[in-house]
Known about the structure:
Radius of gyration: 20 Å
Mean pLDDT: 82
Distance between the termini: 36 Å
Structural class: mainly alpha
Strand order of the largest sheet: 1-2
Oligomer: single chain
Amino acid sequence: xxxxxxxxxxxxxxxxxxxxxxxxxxxxxxxxxxxxxxxxxxxxxxxxxxxxxxxxxxxxxxxxxxxxxxxxxxxxxxxxxxxxxxxxxxxxxxxxxxxxxxxxxxxxxxxxxxxxxxxxxxxxxxxxxxxxxxxxxxxxxxxxxxxxxxxxxxxxxxxxxxxxxxxxxxxxxxxxxxxxxxxxxxxxxxxxxxxxxxxxxxxxxxxxxxxxxxxxxxxxxxxxxxxxxxxxxxxxxxxxxxxxxxxxxxxxxxxxxxxxxxxxxxx
Length: 267
């Protein structure tokens, strides 16, 4: 059943040592190994060739399994919860936007980085925990590119709608990770707070999408010198508010977590 492994993972997660926990497992077992947790069989790998096969050359031979149902309460029907034809539609919808962000998004990102640096200057000696600040930074930079407006979470007093969104996103995302460790039994982890957190995230993004659809000035689609806003560019491809919301939350998850984890683990 691997209950001992689940307990160790829970303890490591609560203590902020989940990366070291997984790294230790890989060191003991090798880069690719099979595990059976609560009766569910899974294969873990960090081998680059295996990853390339799964994500590229043999993509059609693999599916998301329980991840789709696990992630759907927060992410809806987006690129991280879809397989097959639905996934291809999402990829085709999103890919052109990423080609534009490479240079046009730099000014917005630079502004948020400068705010981040300023927020660390007030530290009064001792140890400064950068990980929460990194997650706030990457949330702000991703939102600035996606929505055209930063969350200002580095300077929030904790009482605004933006702060409620940030806290709800944090909590819901963490619960998804916990659920993911249970494989097919992900549904054992949920609860009222998780459901309410997902609703807060959806409501916040729905509001941003509704405002963008109402304005629809397409300020970001045009000359290279114009400011790039992902949402406005996406509206040029679809005006379905649910599709827009789900895809934005999916990209927000990717843009925020990968960068924040990389920064945290390399410091």
